[in-house]
Amino acid sequence: MEKINVPLADRSYSILIGSGILSGLGKELSALSFPQRIAVISNPKVDNLYGRAVLDSLKTSGFSPLMFTIPDGEEFKSQKTLQSIYDFLIENSFDRGCGLITLGGGVVGDIAGFAAATFLRGIPYVQIPTTLLAQVDSSVGGKTAVNHSLGKNLIGAFYQPEMVLIDISLLHTLEPREVSAGLAEVIKYGVICDYDFFCWLEKNVVQLRNRDVKALAHAIKRACQIKSEIVVTDEKEGSVRAFLNYGHTFGHAIENLSGYGEWKHGEAVSVGMVVAAKISLKQGFCTQQDVDRLTQLLKNLELPIAPPDFPLSAYVASMQRDKKVKQGTLTLVLNRGIGEVFLQKTDNISSVFSSVL
Question: Is 222 a catalytic residue?
Fold first, then answer.
């Protein structure tokens, strides 16, 4: 088992990465002196696969867990679903001496994490991400949120977990589309700050598509290392943490306009990265070869590279509601070649994007 420490003073925690480590959950939580009474939030599919293993591990170590499932899908990452979690916690007499575990993908992690951040003004929680996308991105860093009908993740809080447990063996039950969606976020890390990692991804496409354990372990570990280093430097996105939004501004617009759940988050980010790279090319910050390499890697990992056919005006309206907009100015993340990005502010969103769409 690998361990990555995220040093954030009194909010520090560890990311545990390994294969077959879910059974050790109870022992790890005991070592943390985690609250005895625990609400495990999951969805029906994940509960059927791994719920019993989680509950058994917890009970064996002396914990008292209760399982609560929420509907599966981005369209359910809503205030209505959040309310159902609050109802469950209150009806079962959970208090400030209790804890919460998120067991699932990014939707479960984000919404249950937000419930933990806000229930009784905050209770401790642990992330157990079961999708590749959640393992390399949303489970690390303490971003929690629900969607609004007008935009993605517009209602949320920064709230760090007590631990993140990443069991690579859980990925064998994922559909190929889910694996590809997760790999989009992995590619992002190479583009924003690690050229050598990007080259490694190009050379290991087959292994990653075939879910080779060693390849996945390396990709997940490197992604988590990069994200944790950025989070430690800028926990609440005042500067460099915004680099992690590469491809996300346009990607979130795709998700919003298509109807949450139609596009996987990683698929939308894949297209968003291509759009960002084309803007960078247009402005002279990268070469056509850089754009081609990124596009080819995404295609090789069976990810989309072309946006759905919505009017430019619809994309602009959606991006103007993005949480990264301040006083009408949108901060874009653009790449310098491969392995470096920078922030660029623009108050003319239509002009910038019309040149590449």
Answer: no
Catalytic residue from among 77, 143, 222, 264: 143
- Tally of helices (H runs) and strands (E runs) in the chain: 15, 12
Any alpha helices (H) in 194-332, and if so which ranges? 195-203, 205-209, 213-233, 248-258, 265-282, 288-300, 312-320
Q: What is the pLDDT of residues 57-92, one digit of tens each?
A: 999 999 999 999 999 999 999 999 999 999 999 999
Containing 81, the helix (H) or strand (E) segment is helix 79-91
Query: Does 96 qualify as catalytic in the annotation?
Result: no
Which of these three, 157, 173, 189, is where a domain ends? 173
Whether residue 267 lies in the annotated active site: no
How, if at all, do strands 325-326 and 329-335 pair? Answer: antiparallel
Looking at the fold, whether 145 and 7 belong to one and the same domain comes out as yes
Specify whether 310 is located in the same domain as 346: yes
Global confidence as pTM: 0.93
Instruction: Look up 121 and say whether it is catalytic.
Output: yes
